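Hi! If you just cloned this repository, the fastest way to understand the data is to look at a raw example. We've pasted two of them here, unedited. The first protein comes first, obviously.
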Amino acid sequence: GAMEHCIIGVIILSELTQEMNLVDYSRPSAKHRKIATSFRDTSLKDILVLACSLLKEILGKPLNLQDQDQQNLVMQVLKLVLNCLNFDFIGSSADESADDLCTVQIPTTWRTIFLEPETLDLFFNLYHSLPPLLSQLGLSDPGNYHEFCRFLARLKTNYQLGELVMVKEYPEVIRLIANFTITSLQHWEFAPNSVHYLLTLWQRMVASVPFVKSTEPHLLDTYAPEITKAFITSRLESVAVVVRDNLDDPLDDTTTVFQQLEQLCTVSRCEYEKTCTLLVQLFDQNAQNYQKLLHSTSGITVDMAVQE
């Protein structure tokens, strides 16, 4: 039927796009770039537009994802879109697994596609329309969560703080990012490698404060102390869980801890007085608890181990 033919056509385009992007080391790199560039300039945009139009058509009808063919079509079209956007547009062969936070170099001829609100709305509407089986709705999925953290880190890579504060929605966005970061820090056992990207964002934001000339409030003096507090208290609270449940201690990973502290030291200097007050308060509180245990006759070894 028409559905099966459509799926086959989408798969062919997807495989073709992926193959055109694949470096063939058996031929000279200059020849590969010539072929890839020609494909990019003559066909790739049309393929992306076709994929988006198919997604709009799918959304325009009642979604019946119990139908295996319809479900397969959605997945194949999404894969095609991903292959289009993953194309190595300028021959940089960027490694997405690296921490250099590379930027996708979309061709200027594609500008109108991405400036149209309908394009972004299409993918958000699709994301909310698909069941969790397909969309993995929410950030409880480690893969989704990790990529979202990487996305947040790229905000400061691609924009200056002075540009961000001029955006009308900035106060609400920075509040939500702060809440997300605090929640992430409190759940230290979940996807710990993703915290690096969140701290990268806050480190770069705070480091930019002295260079902001805009009169619009950056609000980092409000949220940076909260991030600092969440990091310190969550790490202290993790000790009891690690000791009592005999878990691997994340603080034993000295390389990661050192890296995170390097990032945090910049964040903590925003409203430094609040950071100092917090550290003194926590130190005194834990010292008092330790003294009580030392003078206790019960000799609770677990609590003693936690304090030590």
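Ok, and the second one:
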Amino acid sequence: MTSVGSKNARLRLDDVLDALNGRQSRPIIDEVKKSLVEAGVQFDGPAVVVREGPDGRRHIRPIDDFEIRVAKGIVTHGLRPEQGRAAIPNALVSALVEASAEDGTISVADVESLWGKRASAITAQVAKMLDDGKKELPTTRRRTKYKWLPESDIQRIAKSARTEPLAKRMPVLGEISRMLGGPNKLAGLKMISVQHLFPTTGPLFDELAKNGLDPSKTQIHGKNYSTNEDTLFRLRGAGWDVPTFGLQSLPGRDGKMMNIAGQYLTDVFKDLDPNDSGKPPKVLILDEGGKILKALHEDFPEYAHLCVAVEQTDHGIQVIEEMKQRGIELECPVVSVARSGAKKIAESPMIGESVVHSIETAIKDLNEKLTIQPKEAVVIGYGAVGKATADALERRGFKVFVYDTDSAKMEKAKAEGRTIGSREEILAHGHLVISATGRTTIVPDEFDKLLPNRAILVNAGSGNHELGMDSIEEGPAFRTSDPKETVDEDGWRRSTFKGLDVTLGDRAGQDQMFSRVLRSETGNERLVLRSGYVVNMVEDIPPEFIQLTRGLLLAGCLQAVNHAGQAGIVDVDKPAQDFVVKRTQKHLSDKRLSLTSPDFRKLAPAEH
């Protein structure tokens, strides 16, 4: 046993990096920055560099080897001033990596042996925060967590990350494997996948590996606006092939995604014979939005019979239907999780709760004192997600007003106790406005005419066009049109809203989904959460709930291989659907929770 303060206690580099990026480590970072400034590092110029000395040369004045290593980790990246301080935690951890074991852990003793007293003193302070490795602190700066770190350091950090607790909160996955799978069920298959890389996506792929899928023969492609970088690098650390497209692309470039999908399929098919019978299948496709399936049938139809596939979203099924209208028939089986009764019925309440829970989280991140008063909310679009969002709002005491262009949906909302009216009448109550239609429902030029002052607007549909924010450009030097916006020394965008100081987003991390305050000539202000991008694409749904969706995807993959040699859309087997729903509800009931009336506030987040 080791006591708090033991020099030999093992600390995970992942936890150390999270701790150093948190506000509790400000004194450490301030002290390191002060020392680096004294050594000649310039943080306040056009770029973070080493100052010129009297001789005209740039050199670091004598400090210990550890801080020289840290200084080099900062000045070699061409950082902007607002990135300099944000890069210090990463530079510290990059130096600590050199003292780490293969499993990505360090001790105060190891650090002192390599780097000396200064480095070990910093490590000891972090060890105290982490209770000698027994405590985990939240990731407070996801956008910069892995920036400015070499790939080798990232892999070592990712290897140290905690993953076991998440899988334990998703027992349905193991139960499905025992019912439908086996250690060789997916053996010999290659796999290519497009998925939102949330923390709970990791246990899904781990379960596929337990069914025989080889991580080294699998490509997993994330989406830029939803990719959780912890998840990406942890999957890589476990041996999965996860390209960085999800971190490098821009939202909405569907054509570019198709082009890249074709490039990756070239790699998948390079050693396969198109004349093979396809029994057993050679490639498993786990698709989201039909991107891989479209590229397969348009660019590689001769290989389609070697594949079996699973499609997660209704949009993906629409892509398949659109291909058929153009005369392109499916040449492989596609298990449709998208239109399974279990997903359509049981997932919608979860999504509505996710929207409202994400709004609460985003507002808390802005300023913990920020509230919505009066508690009146407008929901535009009363489909499955709109209705579920209204339910979640009412669980929190909001009076809900509904507008939909479909009169039948308006009558449905009225029958369910919601207030309906004309667009103008309803938006006048929009102290919180949630748009869930998939199309543009309001634009900034209408805000003053239709909305109360200090309204908060949220997209629960798609893209960033829903609230007209696709027409609002970012200004020079990544600034917005908000005259009150500033960037603090830590690289956070700041402004004011409702008289409060608000933290809008991470400019140092080049976060595209920062919130924006729009001010009118009349002096009114409105807050658009996450720049008008979909609000619930940052936080994951708690594992206890999302195991239903992950479980259906797993069941679909295990079923797909049974349809080798067939073609067309296939439903998820009804017994498998019923099993997933029944077991998910059973585990939720044990915690006094429900699929039909979900409440995420009673659970820990998927990632701290």
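That's it. A detail worth noticing about the second one: The first helix runs from residue 13 to 21.
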